[in-house]
Amino acid sequence: MSQDLRSTPAARSSAHAAQFAGANETPSRAHRTAPLTHLCDALDAMFEACVKFPEPSDSTFFARSMRIALAEAAANPDLLTSAQREGSTENYRRHLLAADPHGRYAIAALVWLPHQASPVHAHHTWCGYAVLDGTLSETVFEWNGAQHCASATRTQARNAGAVSFVRGGKGGIHRLGNCSDAPAVSLHIYGVAGAQIATHVNDIVRAADAPALV
Ligand SMILES: [Fe+2]
C-alpha cells in the first residue's frame, strides 16, 4: 500500500478544487436506477416522518434511518450505472445522482482511484456515506478551538458496506482516501440542494498534523 495520498497543503488544495470538476448533470428521475429511486423514496419518507422537527437531522430516528437506507442501497449492486463508476486520473470524481426537488438532500457517488484522497474537512451540513466497492481509509480528527486547527485521532479501514452518518459542524472532521491499488466507490448523501453540493458541504479546515492515510 502506498503512503502517497496527496497530504501536502498544495495537494489538498488541488484535491478540493478537483473534487467538483468532474460533476455530471443531475440525471432526471426517469434515468434513475430502480435502487436509486428506492433510496429517494426512503429519504422522502424519512423527511415526512420528521416534518415536526425544526431540524430533522437532529433526531435519532433520522440518523438511524439514514444508516439503514445507506446500508440497503450499498448492498444493491445495481445502484449505479457503469458510467457512474468512472473515475478521473486527476482526482477523485463525483457523480451527482439525484437532487431532491425540495432541496432537502442531494445524492452523489464518489469514485476514488488508487492513492486519491479528500482534504481534511468538517461539514456545513449533515452527511452520510457508505462504501460500495473497494476499501477506503478514513482519518478522524478532533477540533482544537484554541489553536484553530484539527488533530488526527485515528485512522481506520472502511470496507464495502461500511456506513457513517455525521451532523454538521466541527464534531465530524475527517479525511477519506483510497490507499489500495484498486478503485473504490462510495455513496454520499448531503443535506443540501443539488445546486449547493459544490459550495455548501465541505468545510475545509487546517490540520496540525495530517499524516498520510495508511
Ligand atoms: Fe466528509
From TrEMBL:
<comment type="similarity">
    <text>Belongs to the cysteine dioxygenase family.</text>
</comment>
<dbReference type="Pfam" id="PF05995">
    <property type="entry name" value="CDO_I"/>
</dbReference>
<feature type="compositionally biased region" description="Low complexity">
    <location>
        <begin position="7"/>
        <end position="23"/>
    </location>
</feature>
<protein>
    <submittedName>
        <fullName>Cysteine dioxygenase</fullName>
    </submittedName>
</protein>
<feature type="region of interest" description="Disordered">
    <location>
        <begin position="1"/>
        <end position="29"/>
    </location>
</feature>
<keyword id="KW-0560">Oxidoreductase</keyword>
<keyword id="KW-0223">Dioxygenase</keyword>
<keyword id="KW-0479">Metal-binding</keyword>
<feature type="binding site">
    <location>
        <position position="174"/>
    </location>
    <ligand>
        <name>Fe cation</name>
    </ligand>
</feature>
<feature type="binding site">
    <location>
        <position position="121"/>
    </location>
    <ligand>
        <name>Fe cation</name>
    </ligand>
</feature>
<dbReference type="InterPro" id="IPR010300">
    <property type="entry name" value="CDO_1"/>
</dbReference>
<feature type="binding site">
    <location>
        <position position="123"/>
    </location>
    <ligand>
        <name>Fe cation</name>
    </ligand>
</feature>
<dbReference type="InterPro" id="IPR011051">
    <property type="entry name" value="RmlC_Cupin_sf"/>
</dbReference>
<dbReference type="GO" id="GO:0019448">
    <property type="term" value="P:L-cysteine catabolic process"/>
</dbReference>
<keyword id="KW-0883">Thioether bond</keyword>
<feature type="cross-link" description="3'-(S-cysteinyl)-tyrosine (Cys-Tyr)">
    <location>
        <begin position="127"/>
        <end position="190"/>
    </location>
</feature>
<dbReference type="GO" id="GO:0008198">
    <property type="term" value="F:ferrous iron binding"/>
</dbReference>
<dbReference type="GO" id="GO:0017172">
    <property type="term" value="F:cysteine dioxygenase activity"/>
</dbReference>
<dbReference type="InterPro" id="IPR014710">
    <property type="entry name" value="RmlC-like_jellyroll"/>
</dbReference>
<keyword id="KW-0408">Iron</keyword>
